[in-house]
Every structure is written in structure tokens, then in C-alpha cells.
Design brief:
Layout (H helix, E strand, L loop, with lengths): L2 H6 L21 H13 L11 E6 L5 H9 L17 E5 L5 E4 L7 H10 L13 E8 L2 E9 L12 E6 L9 H12 L4 E6 L12 H17 L9 E4 L7 H11 L4 H31 L14 H18 L22 H14 L2 E45 L4 H12 L6 E47 L3 H20 L6 H12 L6 H6 L1 H4 L2 H15 L5
Parallel strand pairs: 1-3, 1-6, 2-4, 6-7, 7-8
Antiparallel strand pairs: 2-3, 4-5, 9-10
Length: about 550
């Protein structure tokens, strides 16, 4: 990555617009990470005691000389850095255990006496028309504290006390190069030599993370330096212009690398640069992961307000993370890219954001809680009873027989004399010796009839009307959602995976599977931000980490910028 690109990535707190409901990503600064390792290495002693160069900073007041010194030490207030004119009226020498010395001189192009102070320190003649410097005060610092103060007469000032191996001329491009600086810069180039001067373009950044210097400011600064070089018979080497942010540390590694090159490839200084180069990328990646996990953790406590906005928080978080991924890689994330793996059929041309939104809708739906009430209707029913219908019928009454008295003759054995005579006569007549006798008898001639009622059918008879309330169903009276919780955190981290995959044009693959894996890792930890951030590197799948590394490599080489 170019120094300009590095400086442009100074630490910003979520550079870009955040959603009112979400805090922005607390973006770490690669420059700050590199500066941390550079400070760490400079604070370590060397066994061979090989001295590192003496870097002498000079320039206009407010250009960042003291800020750069504080950055190297890792202490915000060791050197006074108010930005007011002429707030430094002595030379401050910072000595590091590894052998590097950094000298902070007073500002120029303001107080004429203090500019003469700079001229004496750099072995240049004082301007006689200005107040002459009689004494040179020098403060020494070691291990983040002032260890002594010395005063030397200007006339007999030891030449090697502040003599620079390399001069760092700091410029704040947004302030412009003033005409008052021109004589000093030209005299410095003649006295020191352009090969021993680096121009540090201190790219200040505002609270919103945006650079205060405009492209026009940088163009004008370069044009002025180029003209001043030509006026003293020199050519401006563009490699001697090093952009950085002296407050955040973005570009410090590039500054020390440029210093190494100016000093003929100083192995001691190169070793300091290599030390951070070996360690900073991994540490920066870990800080990015912690920042992303910390950003995702805040989602756990968010609760969807309604069906219409149920997926709003995950979607906004996805867009913020996509923008952050784009800043890391130096190129925007394509929200209309391929969502599925190459050759995955119908879904291959679908936006990864649409695929994520569908996943978010499914997951958030599981948190939906519906309040219902019964639907009751008034019902009624007529009650009838079955009543028999009767009719009269006649039938034979076998219990009431009908008899008739009848007379008839019967042949009987003679019983008396008369019958004897009849018998003799009948015998003589050939009918046998029998007599005929009249008898009376009761003969059954039928039965009487009787009447009775029988059931011949039934009919319905109204009894009453019953009324009652009946539940015929339920209706929704309200919808509420549970907090997004671990599912929401996993969703946001899944969006991070998808955005990185879109950057790599690798296809997001099965986002549901990625979400399940991340959710499985989150569940045992809960949703406390500190707990999640502490285990950030364990929460993301291996492929997500590889995609992040690829994005960071793209950013290192300048991306599409």
C-alpha cells in the first residue's frame, strides 16, 4: 500500500454514516497498529549497541512535530503540542533504548528568534536582521520522562549535539506552505542537502475521520516544494514526500522506510521496520475482527418493532459492514454480485444482500411472538321433543267369547220306557237299537270386539330455545418480537462473511450453513460484548478469516484506488 493510502486510512470511528439505532464500527487503524510495534521495537535495547539515526524535526508551528514525537514515545503529553504559534522554545531530544534519537525543534515562520534557533541547531547562519539567539536550551528525555536540561551558548554550540542524520520537515498541507517558510526551506536544502531531508505531509483527520487536506492542497504543496528546489538548483524527488497522520500513526512505517532508504538502507532502522512488518498484519487483522464482533454484539439487545421493520437492524448492520469491508480493501463491495458459488444454478446471479435478507427474515421470524384473543359468536338453538301420535283401533277380544244355545237330536241308548219303545222301533226299522233324544248345548259362535289406542307415529313438539357463546377461532391483536440475541449477532457476522466473499468474488455459498456455524460458536459465550470480543478470532469460520486476509492484502496493495 502506498503511504498516501495508508495515511488515508487513519483511525476513524466507523467512517461513514451510521444508523441511529446502531453505533458505528470502532475501526482500528493499521497505522496505529504499525506505530505500536515500531514503538515497541524502539523501546527495546540492542545487544550490539549500534546507534540508530538522529531524526531532527523542523517546520512551521502546528505542523505536528511534537505530535510525531509523542507518537514515537507512545505518550500524548510528553511534548507540549497545543498547535499554538511558538509553543516550543527549546530543543527536545527523545532518546530510545534501541538507539534512535528524535529532536523536536521550535516552529519556524512565526517568531523570528525561534527560526534563528532552528538555524543554529541545523548549523545554518542566523538571520542578522532578526533577534539573535544567545543561548540554546536542550531538554533530554528517556523512558517517557525528562532526564535533564542543558544550556549552551549559541556561538559555541556543539556541532554534533543536534546534527541531524536526517531532517524531517513537517508540513500541514491544509494550512498551506507560507511564503515565510520559503527562505528557511531553501537555506536548509543548501546547508543540509536535499538527500538528507524528508518532507512529511501531516494529513490531519477530523472527528468524522475525513482528511482535512484537499487534493488541491496537496498539489499546491508539491508545486511549491518543486519550485523552491529548482530555485536552489535541485530537483524534488517525489519519494522524499511522505504522507502520514502524526496523531494516529498511519504512515509511520512508510516514514521510517523512507528514512532507511535516505540513509543508504540503514540495517538498524530497517530491522525496526521489519519487526513491525512481521507482526502488524496479524495484530491488525485481530483488531479488525474484534471491532466487527464488538459491532455485531450490540445487535443482541435490539428488538424488532414490527413486521415491517423486523429485518431492518440486520440489514443496516450488513450495509455498514459491507462499507467497512470496502474501506479495508480499497474498493466498494458489489451488492449485486454473485451470491451462490459459481455454477450454482438459478441463484448464481442473485445479490448477496438479497440472499442475506432472506436468511435474516427466516431467523427473525423465529423470534416473532403473536398475541391473540378468541373470536366468540352468540349462538341459539330451538329445542324440540318427540311426542307420540295415537289412534283408536278395533280388534277381537278373545277374552270375551260369544255363545248360542242350540237344540238337536242325538242317538242315545234307551234310558226309559219311552226310549225303549223308540229303540225297538228303530231296530225293527233297521236303524239299530237306539233312541233319539233332544239335547240343549252352548255353541261358540265368535268373539266380541274391543277398542284401544295405539302409537301410529311421532311428531316434534317445541320445548324452548337455548342460547350460548361459542369460540369459533382466534384473531391477532398484536405482534411482538424477542430481542435478536445470539441469532442477531450471528446474522451480522454472517453478513460480514458475505460482504468479504463478495469482495473476493468467491460467492457467498450457503449463508444458512455459515450462520449455523457462527451461532454454534456464539451460544456458549452469551452475548456480552466483552466476552465475544475476547474470543473474536474463534467466532468466525476459517473461510471468513481467509477472506478477511485477502481483503486486507488488497487494501495493502492499494485496492482499486
Amino acid at each position: 500500500m502506498s503511504a498516501g493510502a495508508t495515511a488515508g486510512r487513519a483511525g476513524t470511528k466507523g467512517g461513514g454514516t451510521s444508523h441511529p439505532a446502531l453505533l458505528p464500527v470502532d475501526e482500528p487503524s493499521l497505522g496505529a497498529v504499525r506505530a505500536r510495534f515500531l514503538r515497541e521495537r524502539l523501546s527495546q535495547g540492542r545487544a550490539d549497541r549500534t546507534p540508530l539515526p538522529r531524526l531532527v524535526s523542523t517546520g512551521r508551528t502546528g505542523s505536528g512535530k511534537s505530535t510525531l514525537g509523542n507518537l514515537l514515545v507512545g505518550c500524548d503529553d510528553l511534548l507540549r503540542s497545543t498547535g499554538r504559534h511558538d509553543c516550543t522554545d527549546a530543543a527536545h531530544v527523545l532518546r530510545f533504548p534501541r538507539g534512535l534519537s528524535y529532536v523536536d525543534l521550535p516552529g519556524v515562520a512565526g517568531d523570528d528568534r525561534l527560526e534563528n534557533f532552528n538555524r543554529v541547531a541545523l548549523g545554518m547562519a542566523q538571520v542578522p536582521q532578526w533577534p539573535l539567539v544567545r543561548e540554546m536550551r536542550v531538554f533530554d528525555y528517556e523512558e517517557r520522562r525528562c532526564t535533564g536540561e542543558r544550556t549552551h551558548p549559541a556561538a559555541g554550540f556543539p556541532a554534533d549535539l543536534l546534527r541531524p542524520d536526517l531532517v524531517l520537515y513537517l508540513i500541514a498541507p491544509h494550512q498551506g506552505l507560507g511564503r515565510a517558510e520559503k527562505p528557511y526551506v531553501k537555506d536548509m536544502l543548501r546547508a543540509v542537502g536535499s538527500e538528507r531531508v524528508l518532507f512529511v505531509l501531516n494529513l490531519f483527520h477530523g472527528p468524522d475521520g475525513r482528511r482535512t487536506a484537499t487534493p488541491q492542497d496537496l498539489t499546491e504543496t508539491r508545486a511549491n516544494l518543486d519550485r523552491w528546489h529548482r530555485e536552489v538548483g535541485l530537483a524534488l524527488d517525489s519519494s522524499r514526500l511522505v504522507p502520514m497522520d502524526c496523531r494516529s500513526g498511519a504512515g509511520l512505517a512508510e516514514l521510517l522506510s523512507a528514512a532507511r532508504d535516505c540513509l543508504g538502507g540503514s540495517t538498524a532502522l530497517g530491522e525496526v521496520v521489519s519487526y513491525q512488518h512481521e507482526r502488524a498484519p496479524r495484530a491488525y487483522r485481530a483488531e479488525v475482527q474484534r471491532a466487527v464482533v464488538g459491532f455485531a454484539a450490540q445487535v443482541a439487545g435490539r428488538t424488532p418493532a414490527s413486521d415491517a421493520t423486523a429485518t431492518e437492524v440486520p440489514e443496516v448492520a450488513a450495509r455498514l459492514l459491507a462499507a467497512y469491508a470496502g474501506r479495508l480493501a480499497g474498493e466498494p463491495v458489489n451488492t449485486a454480485g454473485i451470491a451462490g458459488a459459481a455454477g450454482s444454478g438459478a441463484g448464481r446471479h442473485e445479490s448477496w444482500l438479497k440472499a442475506f435478507t432472506r436468511l435474516a427474515a427466516r431467523e427473525v421470524a423465529t423470534l416473532r411472538q403473536v398475541a391473540t384473543e378468541p373470536v366468540v359468536e352468540r349462538r341459539s338453538k330451538d329445542v324440540y321433543k318427540k311426542v307420540p301420535r295415537y289412534d283408536w283401533v278395533k280388534e277381537t277380544d278373545y277374552d270375551r267369547p260369544i255363545y248360542e244355545t242350540r237344540r238337536r237330536k242325538v242317538k242315545v241308548s234307551p234310558g226309559d220306557f219311552d226310549e225303549f219303545l223308540d229303540g225297538v222301533g228303530n231296530w225293527l226299522g233297521g236303524s239299530g237299537f237306539v233312541a233319539e233324544r233332544w239335547i240343549t248345548e252352548e255353541v261358540l259362535v265368535g268373539y266380541k270386539k274391543k277398542k284401544r289406542q295405539v302409537v301410529v307415529g311421532h311428531e316434534r313438539q317445541y320445548v324452548r330455545t337455548d342460547h350460548w357463546d361459542e369460540t369459533v377461532g382466534h384473531r391477532e391483536i398484536g405482534v411482538a418480537y424477542a430481542p435478536l440475541g445470539p441469532a442477531g449477532v450471528a446474522l451480522v457476522l454472517t453478513a460480514w462473511h458475505a460482504a468479504l466473499a463478495a469482495l473476493a468474488k468467491d460467492g457467498t455459498g450457503n449463508l444458512a450453513a455459515v450462520h449455523r456455524e457462527i451461532r454454534r460458536r456464539i451460544d456458549p459465550l452469551g452475548t456480552a460484548p466483552d466476552a465475544l470480543a475476547a474470543r473474536a478470532e474463534e467466532l468466525l469460520p476459517a473461510k471468513t478469516v481467509r477472506l478477511l486476509e485477502a481483503a486486507l492484502r488488497t487494501g495493502e496493495t492499494g485496492g482499486a484506488r
